[in-house]
Task: structure prediction
Amino acid sequence: MTVRTWDVPVGRRADGEPWRLRFLEVTGSRPGPTTAFISGIFGDKPLGVLALWGLLRRLETAEDLGGTVVLCPAANPPALEVGTRISPDHLYLNRVFPGAPAGFLTNQVAAALIGALTERTDCVVDLHSGTPTMALWYSYDYGNPEFTASFGYTPVVYNFAQPGQLCKAIADAGGTAALVEFGGGALGDPSVGVEGCLNVLRYRGQLGGRSTGPRTVPLIDGDVSLYLPSQVGVLTSRYPTAEVGRPIEAGWVARLDCPATGERLEDFAIERTGGLLMLANTSPMMIGPGDFGSVVAFPSGEIAVPNT
Result:
C-alpha cells in the first residue's frame, strides 16, 4: 500500500500564491476500482473533514486494500478558512458544479475539483456533516440507491437532487455518486463517517469483510417537509440534535418567537405519523430567513444495506 499526495492550484491570492486543493491517493496491494471521497465543500462542516482523515488512518493499516482510494478532505479552502457555508465570493460551492475555469473563485474551485476527480474515477462520495449547532442524518441518492445505501447508517433520500451539486454533475456525466449528511450538534464523533466510507469500499470490493451498522435503512421518495423561517426570531426545537435519524411524533417540531415582543411568529408542525427527524438545531438559538429550521421526512419503505 502506498500513499501519494499532490495539489491542484486554483486562482491566485493577494500574496501571489494560488489556493491549493490537496489530494491524497491511496493505492492498495491488489487490483481494483478507484473510489473518491471528498469533504469540506462547505466551510462550516468540519466533521466530515475529520472523518476523511480518520479514513486515511484506517486505510494505512489495511492489509487487503484493492484498487485506489482518492481523498480530498478540504475541497473548499476559501470557505474553510473563514468557517462559513457560503464562500467569500458569496457563492455556494455545491450549487455551481461543474463550474468554470475563469470568473468567480468558487466556479474555479468547482471546475478544478470535478476535473481532478473525473480524471481518476467515475465513483464519488461527497461527505458532508452537520455543524456545531445543527445535526443532520440522511444521504442523497443520484440514481443508484444500492450504492447510496452501501454507506449504511443514514436514510436514503431520492428524487431530491439539487442543480449544481457535485454529485448531480457526476451522475449527469454517467458516473455514480452519493452525498452523505451525518452528525453535528451533540453528535460530534466522526466515527460513523469513517465506518460508512469503509462500508462503501467493502461494497466496491476494495476491502474484505461485511459492512457494519444496520442491515436496512429507511428509503425516502422525496417526501420531505422543510422548515425555512421567513422572519428573524428565537428558534425552539422540540427534539434535541441527538435525535436526528429517529422517528418522531405528529405535532409541533419547531417554533419561532420574536425576541422583542415575545409573540409567536411561526410554527412548524407535522400532521402525519411515521416521520423521521432529518435536521435539528440546538435550541434556543437565533435564526432568520434562509436558515434551516428543521427537516422531517416520511419513508416509503426500507432498503437493504448491501454486504451486511
In short: The longest helix spans residues 46-60. DSSP finds six helices and 18 strands in the chain. The CA atoms of residues 67 and 120 lie 12 Å apart.
